[in-house]
Amino acid sequence: MLDQSRSAISTLLDERREGHSLPAGLYTREDVYEADLDVFFRKHWIFIGPECDVPEPGDASVIDVAGSSLIMLRDDDGEVRVFHNVCRHRGARILDEGTSVVSKLVCPYHQWTYELTGELAYAPHMGRDFDKTCNSLKPVNFRNIGGLIHVCLSDDPPADIDALEAVGRDRLLPYDLKNTRVAFTQDVIEHGNWKLTIENNRECYHCAANHPELCVSYIDLDFGFDPESLSPEDRERAARHEALYARQIVAWEAEGYPSAAIEHLSKTESNFRTQRLIISGAGESQTPDARAAVAKLTGIGRKDLGDTHLWGHNSWHHFMGDHIIVAAVIPLGPDKTLLRMKWLVNKDAVEGMDYDLHNLTSVWVATNEEDAALVGRSHAGVSDPAYVPGMYSPFTEKQLDWFAGWYVDRMRAHGY
Ligand code: 3BY
Ligand code: FES
Ligand code: FE
């Protein structure tokens, strides 16, 4: 029964004040969570995994998201395909979550058998009038964005994915994700709402105090500082940083590597940001000493091209010369979110010879654990009756304000 004592979701959206974090219910309520799944995980493009999850024909990977189970596979012609993991007979799941190698897709229940193109090849006992051609697996709308597989579960997907596709073509393709291999996967369950996971990733206000490992190589994005509020040393550092970016971006672009920021963080259907970032210290990679961890580089072939970062509304990625990290954010409940990060290396790089796995992964493994603790802490706080939305820093948290505004706009656009 509808609980009349609780305000409608639209009232919560009305309560959102610009420059401030969201009203508690938008982070904590079950009905908002269901609405979020519907709007942001079924009606928008979401990242589900890199194409090197299925490197060879017959490789399949199952991803469960927003109540749907999806099969990503590589067919016999080497093409990526994505299907709903729902048998056209009586609906049974065909494959289990995780990866497998298949020559055909055989439903375990009554052995209906599908080609890797999704066509139904074999369905015993169905009689002469049964039309196999009407019973292919249901395909899922997907785009391969420079090797990052994005799907949209709606029949009316946002058209501005074209802008992200251009980023994939111009900035990500040179890294040749197709010829990388997953060296390591880390699944972290964060005890918080998915929006807190995203908010936490979009600011580095918390970095100095919480990420000693990442801070060796990571320079915070420059979203503009208030010179008045900075100490003379910080002001000097910010000015140096700004000058460095100005020079480096021009130099990279002159060499043919697009580097300037592209921001679709508000007033757009899809939400993303990319920029080629400078790496601190030795300047090569997000490792304990900021040097490349992998001797055989990715397709870009250089380790002096910084870190091309890409944020989506359920993902973040860092493309570096020696390796790439990709992260998918998958909501599991109002207060439970799966963060799945993968480390990709040149497919010919051999562990123990070309890289040491701990050296490759330790920075982000630690960072993710630290962030998970922060997200848990944050969710616990916003669930407390004492919570009232707090003010975002107009400098280091501007992009959170854009995210919250985008969130409200997209909810409105879908009738809330
Ligand atoms: O992954 C990012 O985009 C960075 C790293 C830490 C915080 N965040 C802004
Ligand atoms: Fe798949 Fe019957 S449900 S073959
Ligand atoms: Fe963090």
Automatic annotation (TrEMBL):
Residue limits of the Rieske domain? 45-151
Keyword line: 2Fe-2S, Iron, Iron-sulfur, Metal-binding, Oxidoreductase
* MF (Gene Ontology): 2 iron, 2 sulfur cluster binding; iron ion binding; oxidoreductase activity
Its needed co-factors are:
Fe cation
The lineage is: Bacteria, Pseudomonadati, Pseudomonadota, Alphaproteobacteria, Rhodobacterales
Q: What is this protein called?
A: (Fe-S)-binding protein
Q: Name one Pfam family in it.
A: Rieske
Q: Which InterPro entries match?
A: Rieske_2Fe-2S (IPR017941), Rieske_2Fe-2S_sf (IPR036922), Ring_hydroxy_dOase_asu_C_dom (IPR015879), Rng_hydr_dOase-A (IPR001663)
User: Which PROSITE patterns does this one have?
Assistant: RIESKE (PS51296)
Residues in coiled coil: none
Q: Does the keyword Ligase apply?
A: no
Please indicate if the UniProt record lists Iron-sulfur as a keyword: yes
